[in-house]
Structure prediction request, 272 residues.
Amino acid sequence: MILIAGPCVIESEKLLMEVAKRLEKYEKNPNIEFYFKSSFDKANRTSLTSYRGVGLDEGLKMLQRVKDEFGFKILTDIHDFTQAKPVSEVADILQIPAFLSRQTDLLVAAAKTKSIVNIKKGQFLNPHDMRYSVKKVLETTGVEEEGREIAKKNGVWLCERGTTFGYGNLVVDMRALKIMREFAPVVFDATHSVQMPGTMGGSSGGQREFVAPLARAAAAVGVDGFFFETHTNPCEALCDGPNMLNLLELDEVIGQIFAIENSLKGMKNEDS
Prediction:
């Protein structure tokens, strides 16, 4: 199972290393392909005064330290095509934010690196249409074929993070997981899927009580991995606190996911 976890944004080196230390057990778990996630910049905050991060240069230095000290593979966002090359020198996965999932220059720049490209599905997009974002990456590298195994082999993933449902609300259509998995590996972002955009007067709210139920549902449908933002104290987080899990909650949810996946494997064995 792919597991992506870490704090939403780099708040300080101290917090980054503390969370990394608490996540080290997942790196050592042979049943998990673990990636540590944190953003050096959050370029799409609701308000101009919202905390964005430590910036590109300082952020990459901190992520490199996490990589060196814990041996983690790293995932972080890019927001501009000029960031792809320098970020890929540290990050094993370049993440394309949902609002930018159709930005051709960004996808092409990411495709030209050696990093995996994880494209978040736009909250405004039909899941079927994500195949064209995948094709932009594949065709940039000279790959004309389509399909999940082709995308997997060439390092292109998709990430589901909910769909806009009226103002300030997201819903998860579980059909999207199966649809997108036809043409790329799919990671389910359980924490951003419970986000409530722009509902806190200049920042986004969230309903973390629904993270575990949605993650369990995604496990039952079938996905390639899970994405969770986590923090030592989400109530004090500088970004996305209302939808992040604390580290103990994360442990519990991952245990539930494994229980569901093992149950499904048992059912398949009985059927065979």
User: Anything to note?
Assistant: The chain has one domain: 2-271.
